[in-house]
Design brief:
Blueprint: H1 3-10, H2 28-38, E1 44-45, H3 64-80, E2 84-86, E3 96-102, E4 108-118, E5 128-129, E6 132-135, E7 138-144, E8 147-148, E9 150-156, E10 162-168, H4 169-182, H5 193-205, E11 212-213
Catalytic activity: N-terminal N-formyl-L-methionyl-[peptide] + H2O = N-terminal L-methionyl-[peptide] + formate
Keywords: Hydrolase, Iron, Metal-binding, Protein biosynthesis
Function: Removes the formyl group from the N-terminal Met of newly synthesized proteins. Requires at least a dipeptide for an efficient rate of reaction. N-terminal L-methionine is a prerequisite for activity but the enzyme has broad specificity at other positions.
Length: 216
């Protein structure tokens, strides 16, 4: 990485490692708590709500109103006991997601990604993991879904600084899942018709454990 890019990265909210990826594993409790305590928990939008099924708008204004949105997202994520939350899951069509997610080694990752784009990995770096996946917007439903067990995302932090985030295992799944949300895709859209029908059946048969916005 060129020196100019490195300087830009270090001007961001989080430090970066030698390869230019954010270090999102330090001071996790303090950072998550600081966001959450400033926020107000909002109900979760569920599958069928139009805001979940279209691409969100890019974040271009990182001012006070946006900072409050991020705080509300962290508060909402905690209420719903989630590991990741996209803005459209609380009804706001903006390209931003927050996460508080462990990887397969149990290491906690906390951060904010705006305007994310998944990095296309070469075939030799793709190893699929077909673990179960769930979604706060499809409450109480789970289904196995094959995704790469490593992911890289480029985007911006909550102040607009360019960032790169990477994850393995469960955290890699989270990065892919939340980025999908911001482009109008739910994980059930990647399932077969039969699997999708089963996931919706699970949702219909159970009560969510957190407040949701009912679809009219």
């Amino acid at each position: 990485m060129a020196q100019q890019d490195t300087d830009q990265q270090h001007a961001g909210v989080l430090p970066v490692d030698d390869e230019g990826f954010v270090v999102d594993t330090e001071d996790c409790e303090e950072r998550e708590s600081a966001w959450r305590e400033r926020g107000t928990s909002r109900p979760i939008t569920v599958v069928g709500n139009p805001v979940l099924h279209k691409e969100c708008a890019d974040v271009t204004d990182f001012g006070d109103e946006f900072q409050q949105l991020v705080a509300d997202m962290f508060a909402s994520q905690r209420t719903a006991e989630g590991v990741g939350l996209a803005a459209n899951q609380i009804g706001v069509s903006k390209k931003v997601f927050v996460y508080d997610c462990p990887d397969d080694q149990g290491v906690r990752h906390v951060g904010v990604v705006c305007n994310p784009k998944l990095v296309e990995l070469p075939a030799e770096r793709r190893s699929l993991d077909d673990s179960n996946e769930g979604c706060l917007s499809v409450p109480t439903a789970y289904a196995p879904l094959a995704r790469p067990d490593y992911a890289e995302v480029t985007g911006q932090d909550e102040r607009g600084n360019a960032i790169r985030v990477r994850g393995t295992g469960y955290f890699a799944r989270c990065l892919q899942h939340e980025t999908d949300h911001l482009y109008g895709y739910l994980y059930i859209d990647r399932l077969s018709k039969r699997e999708r029908k089963d996931a919706l059946r699970q949702m219909a048969e159970n009560e969510p454990r957190y407040p949701v916005v009912a679809n009219d």
